[in-house]
Design brief:
The complex is a heterodimer of chains A (about 260) and B (about 270). By secondary structure, chain A is an alpha+beta fold. Chain A is built from 11 helices and 6 strands. Chain B has 2 domains: about 140 residues, no CATH class; about 110 residues, no CATH class. Helices cover about 50% and strands about 15% of the residues of chain B.
Chain lengths: ~260, ~270
């Protein structure tokens, strides 16, 4: 009987050991490696969110107290972890979705929950991931990175915005989130020469317009006046029109002067 | 002899009828046309002479109404290069399809160009341009929002004196729906551009495009900022395309000063 028990215990240990060792080894791996270990299915990760970020747990996210001015009072905004679900198919990441607040519902057989990861690790990974993603996935990945607590990813965002090898959507999203970050406007303005395609330059005018300071207004006026592409000039002028800056109005009067 | 007497009587009767018709005031004739249109429910086609330049395909679009580069189809207008530009634009009378329900005009749709041989079960009233103008003016003045607004196109298309005084009154009428006043402003803006000879002005250079964009962007600003700039550009911009855009967007602001500027530019009050 003892022998049976001993064999059973040995048998259990033999079976469990590789899994335990694998688990231990995985824990030491980068998030990227752990995600890439999943060929098909969904990988879930969670990490702490910035204090000024809240969400409804279903996909709506508010930053900088923007929820306070929301017109729908029934919307609940919960400060909670950033939760990212990463869709994998045939060894490739095919989708990224970001939520703030709430919690994962019961895990299914196709889900791999990596649990809580550190914010710095979590912030770096989606920036790299976004490089090759198209459509809204790049935006989800980069928003996840920017929501991570205590991490300044603006250098990575600037690098991605400049990267000719990255997808246009990823670069547009990087520009957007860089504009929303605490990076100085001079850094934003300095990206001009690195942005050559029309979609990027049009996005550039929008991102500048959201800063609403002297430097970015001056840059918009410069683009509206001198950019080689007429579409960019018109777009810069449009966004200047949304500005409250008197210099913008003076600029329009100058353009229309007989 | 008898036949001659008969002929003479017939001639006299015809002359009397003519005299009697000539003695009817335009308002009474219009009332008569309005009464004929709404006499029974269903669709009525009212056909009358169009402006000499107006053209269309008789079934969809109308062109060369106020300038040559804008085409009208129903309540929509199209400018620039579109599918309209390549289609034959034929002269012909205006045909107004009026839908009548419960003795009231509920819908108006205008066409210019070839007249189909068959109008199906619909009634057809072929009338003079002046009668049509009097009837349509009544719709503009009194009908509901949509009918009044839609009646402006066939009113302008009639071979008759320009209806700008009526449209100016409509634009200023506080008791008319906002949509009707806005439609009047849209047509008045087009009339001003035609009157100034800039109806077909286009952005020929990048600077032209930037000026037109500046006009549009300014029009989206609060009225306190935009209206004075738009009025200045509408009155005196030396750049035709920018001036044309300023005249259009000034009308879209809904600001009462715009009507006065339009009247001034049309040489009216």
């Amino acid at each position: 009987m003892n022998r049976v028990r001993t064999l059973a215990a040995a048998s259990f240990l033999a079976a469990a050991a590789p899994a335990m060792m694998a688990s231990s080894a995985l824990a030491g791996q980068s998030i990227e490696a752990r995600v890439n270990a999943v060929r098909d299915g969904t990988v879930l990760i969670s990490f702490p969110a910035r204090p000024d970020v809240c969400g409804d747990g279903r996909g709506s996210v508010w930053t900088n107290g923007s929820h306070d001015g929301s017109w729908r009072s029934e919307w609940v905004c919960v400060h909670g972890p950033v939760r990212v679900s990463i869709g994998r198919s045939a060894g490739q990441t095919v989708s990224v979705r970001t939520h703030v607040g709430g919690e994962w519902t019961g895990a299914s057989a196709t889900e791999t929950n990596l649990g809580d990861v550190s914010a710095p690790d979590a912030a770096r990974y989606p920036v790299e991931l976004a490089r090759t993603l198209a459509g809204s996935n790049a935006g989800h990945a980069l928003s996840a990175a920017t929501f991570a607590d205590g991490v300044d990813i603006s250098p990575q965002l600037a690098g991605l915005a400049r990267d000719d090898g990255a997808s246009t959507e990823a670069r547009k999203q990087a520009l957007f989130w860089l504009g929303q970050s605490d990076a100085p406007s001079s850094e934003l303005v300095g990206l001009d020469s690195a942005l050559r395609s029309l979609p990027l330059r049009k996005q550039f005018t929008f991102v500048l317009s959201q800063r609403r300071d002297d430097l970015t207004t001056a840059k918009l006026i410069e683009l509206a006046t001198h950019d080689p592409d007429l579409q960019v000039r018109k777009q810069a002028m449009f966004w200047l029109g949304q500005s409250q800056d008197p210099k913008a109005i003076a600029f329009f009067r100058e353009v229309l002067k007989p | 002899m008898t036949p001659r007497v008969r002929d003479a009587r017939a001639l006299a009767a015809t002359l009397l009828a003519g005299v009697a018709l000539a003695g009817i005031t335009p308002a009474a004739r219009a009332q008569s046309l309005a009464g004929r249109v709404t006499a029974s429910d269903g669709t009525v086609w009212v056909i009358y002479p169009s402006r000499p330049d107006a053209c269309g395909d008789g079934e969809d679009f109308i062109g060369h109404l106020l300038g040559n580069s804008t085409f009208y189809s129903g309540a929509s207008s199209y400018s620039g290069n579109g599918r309209w530009m390549g289609r034959p634009c034929l002269t012909g009378p205006v045909r107004v399809a009026a839908s009548v329900f419960d003795h009231e005009v509920t819908r108006v749709r205008a066409y210019v160009g070839p007249v189909p041989e068959n109008h199906g079960d619909a009634r057809v009233l072929t009338v003079s341009a002046s009668d049509a103008v009097a009837w349509l003016s009544g719709l503009v003045t009194k009908a509901s929002n949509r009918v009044a607004s839609d009646a402006m196109l066939p009113l302008i298309a009639a071979d008759a004196p320009d209806p700008w005084p009526l449209l100016l009154r409509t634009a200023r009428a506080d008791d008319r729906p906002r949509g009707v006043r806005s439609a009047a402003m849209m047509w008045l803006g087009a009339a001003v551009n035609e009157h100034l000879g800039i109806a077909d002005a286009r952005d020929d250079t990048p600077d032209d495009e930037m000026r037109s964009q500046a006009v549009f962007v300014m029009s989206q600003r609060p009225k306190s900022e935009s209206v004075p700039v738009l009025i200045d550009a509408a009155r005196s911009s030396p750049h035709p395309a920018a001036r044309r855009a300023a005249i259009f967007w000034l009308g879209q602001t809904g600001d009462p000063r715009a009507v006065d500027v339009y009247a001034e530019l049309l040489g009216l009050r």
